[in-house]
Specification:
single chain, about 350 residues, alpha/beta, Inosine-uridine Nucleoside N-ribohydrolase, Chain A, nine-stranded mixed β-sheet, 15 helices, 9 strands
C-alpha cells in the first residue's frame, strides 16, 4: 500500500511539474457566491472532495480556505498543495487556532510533500474578519470542521461576525446518528464538528447569523467503487490528487458528508431545508426544540441526485481551443458525459449493499 501511495503521489507531482494539462478551472459566474471554507482537511477524506467541488463550481467564488482543529499548519500545507495542483494558487490559505489532535492525520505524506508550499499563512480569525469587513453582507462561511475558529471570531468581534451573509455548515445530528444510510435510522448522537468545540457551537447558534445546516441526517453519502472509478479515470491533476489522497486515507468507501455544503450553495434543491430551532446541549447533541427558528436544516437528501451533480463537475473531455493552453472542462459537457456513463454500464447510483 505504501508503494502504491508513493507512486500516486509521484504521478500527481509530475503532472503539476510538467505543467500540463493543468487541472480544469472554472470561472466564477457573475452570480457566484463569495465563500470562505473553514476545514479540517487531512483526517477524513471528505474535506478534500469538498474543496475539489468548490474549485470546480462556477457558482462559488472562493475568497479563501482556512484550517481548523488539530495541526492547522499541516492542514494548510495540504490545502496549499491541493489548490496548487488545481491551478488555484491564487486562493489564500489561512491557519486556524491549533488544538490537541484527536485523530491520525491520514494524509500526512501528501501534506508534507512540499509541493506548492507557501512561505507563510495569515491567521484564520484575522483573515475571516478582514474579508467580512471588505465584503459586508456578501460572504458565506462554509464550516466543514470543528468550530474552533468560529468561536474565536464570535469572541473577538461578534458585530463583524453578524455581517456575514450566512453560515452553511456540515454538522449536527437531529433524527439520525452515524450508520448505514440504507438501514433503519440510528438514534441521534453528538456529531464530530459539534462535539469537538461545544461552546463554539453554542455561540454560533446564538449569534444571530443565518445558518443553513446539513446534519448527519442528510450527508451520509457513500461513494461506491463505480463512482470512484468514474472520478479517478478522468486523470486531471485535480482528480489524480484526489486519488492519491484517497489511497493514503487508507479506507474503502468514503462518506461525502462535507461536499453537500458546496452542492447546496450551487443547487439548494439537492438538500431542501426547513426552519427549526436548534439548541446545542452540554454533551454536543443538537436538539430541535420549540421556539423561534435559528437555522434552516436539511433532514433529507437524494444521494442519486447528489452524485450525478458531483461527478458532472469532473467528467468531461477537454474542449480544444485555438490556444493549446486554453483547455476547458465545461460543466455543460460534463453532465451528459456522466449520465451516459451511468446509463451504459446499467448501474444504479443508489447501492443498497452500501457500495465499494
Amino acid at each position: 500500500m505504501r508503494i502504491a501511495i508513493a507512486i500516486l503521489l509521484a504521478l500527481s507531482s509530475a503532472g503539476a511539474a510538467r505543467g500540463g494539462p493543468r487541472a480544469p478551472q472554472s470561472t466564477p459566474s457573475a452570480e457566484a457566491e463569495k465563500v470562505i471554507i473553514d476545514t479540517d482537511v487531512g483526517d477524513d477524506i471528505d474535506d478534500a472532495f469538498a474543496l475539489a467541488l468548490a474549485v470546480r463550481s462556477p457558482q462559488v467564488e472562493i475568497l479563501g480556505v482556512t484550517t481548523t482543529f488539530g495541526d492547522t499548519e499541516l492542514r494548510a500545507k495540504l490545502a496549499d498543495r491541493l489548490l496548487g495542483e488545481a491551478g488555484r494558487e491564487d486562493i489564500p490559505v489561512a491557519v486556524g487556532i491549533p488544538t490537541q489532535p484527536k485523530t491520525a492525520f491520514t494524509q500526512r505524506i501528501y501534506a508534507e510533500g512540499g509541493h506548492f508550499a507557501r512561505n507563510s499563512h495569515p491567521a484564520a480569525v484575522d483573515f475571516i474578519l478582514s474579508q467580512i469587513k471588505q465584503h459586508p453582507g456578501e460572504i458565506t462561511l462554509v464550516c466543514i470542521g470543528p468550530l474552533v475558529n468560529v468561536g474565536a471570531i464570535i469572541d473577538k468581534d461578534p458585530a463583524t461576525f453578524r455581517r456575514l451573509e450566512r453560515v452553511v455548515m456540515m454538522g449536527g445530528s437531529i433524527d439520525r446518528g452515524y450508520g448505514d444510510p440504507y438501514a433503519p435510522p440510528t438514534p441521534p448522537e453528538p456529531e464530530w464538528n459539534i462535539v469537538n468545540d461545544i461552546p463554539a457551537a453554542q455561540k454560533l447558534f446564538s449569534a444571530g447569523v443565518p445558518i443553513y445546516m446539513m446534519p448527519l441526517d442528510s450527508t451520509q453519502l457513500k461513494m461506491d467503487e463505480t463512482k470512484r472509478a468514474f472520478l479517478f479515470r478522468q486523470a486531471t491533476p485535480l482528480t489524480e490528487a484526489l486519488s492519491a489522497l484517497y489511497y493514503e486515507w487508507g479506507q474503502r468507501t468514503p462518506t461525502l458528508y462535507d461536499p453537500m455544503t458546496i452542492a447546496f450553495i450551487d443547487q439548494p434543491e439537492l438538500c431542501p431545508v426547513q426552519p427549526m430551532r436548534i439548541v446545542v446541549d452540554d454533551k454536543g447533541y443538537t436538539r430541535a426544540e420549540s421556539g423561534a427558528p435559528n437555522a434552516q436544516v436539511c433532514l433529507h437528501s437524494d444521494p442519486e441526485a447528489f452524485f450525478r451533480f458531483y461527478l458532472s463537475h469532473f467528467g468531461a473531455a477537454p474542449v480544444e481551443s485555438k490556444s493549446a493552453d486554453a483547455r476547458q472542462y465545461p460543466r455543460a459537457a460534463a453532465a451528459p458525459f456522466a449520465q451516459t456513463y451511468f446509463d451504459r454500464t446499467k448501474i444504479a447510483l443508489l447501492n443498497p449493499a452500501g457500495g465499494g
